[in-house]
Amino acid sequence: MEAILKDPAGAVIGLDFDGTLSPIVPDPATAVIHPKAPAVLAELGAHVLAVAIVTGRPPATALELGPGLADVPGLVVLGHYGFERWEDGRISAPPPPPGVPRAEAELQLLLGSLGLQGVTIEDKGRAVAVHTRRSADPEGALATLREPLARLAGKHGLVVEPGRMVLELRPPGMDKGHALSLFLAERAARSVMFVGDDLGDLAAFDAVRASGLPGVTVCSGSAEVTALAERADIVVDGPDGVVALLEEFTSAFSRS
Q1: Which H helix or E strand runs over 185?
Q2: Is 123 among the catalytic positions?
Q3: Residues facing residue 120 across a β-bridge
Q4: Which domain holds residue 242?
Q5: What is the secondary structure of 89-124 as a DSSP string?
Q6: Could you read off the pLDDT of 1-12 as tens digits, one per residue?
Q7: Do 89 and 11 lie in a common domain?
Q8: End position of a domain, from candidates 132, 153, 170
Q9: Of residues 16, 18, 197, 201, which has the active-site annotation?
Q10: For the chain, what is the domain count?
């Protein structure tokens, strides 16, 4: 924390999107960024080396659900765990993996064979997510799905990323930790903070520690996931707490 405050021009601020900048909602398509977040990130971006949103969402979706984010100075969105990148109004990405649409085509039949009701499928382009939050027994549905989805993912050369009432099938070879590590090296960062809320953010926490840089890990706390809170340097109360923490940083930078 001290290194970021003393030398903000060398700091990379990395943030997850869902559960961190945006509250978790039953339908992911209706998520929306915290109303204060874009303005706070814009002010933060004027002081630090870079602000990076590292998310499992496609970059275009994160920007759509976060009006005003495109105006944040120097913002980079590393979507699909780093497979896609938005910067300066442009998206760059390798060709989509063929295993994702093949797995998605089999998912509806799989859910029907398991007799699961209220489980929804989200097409994320380079990944496909299976959400149980709207089912009668979200935890039970998640437990029922783990092994069948692992087999389906293996069949199509994918991996399963667990999250808050969701299991996501995506290509291997990239995670939030790898994406963050590459970005820190690219920008020659001198310090780093990463803010997350879910199991997929543990890899980014590990990357902060492995970077050798002065670093801070922040958990956007919830009752659903406790693993991050146990590993975090700072725990705040959901997106409201994240925004309040960022506001403290911007106030400190403005005074210096």
Answers
A1: helix 176-187
A2: no
A3: 131
A4: 2-94+173-255
A5: TEEE-PPPPTHHHHHHHHHHHHHHHHT--S-EEEE-
A6: 899 999 999 999
A7: yes
A8: 170
A9: 16
A10: 2
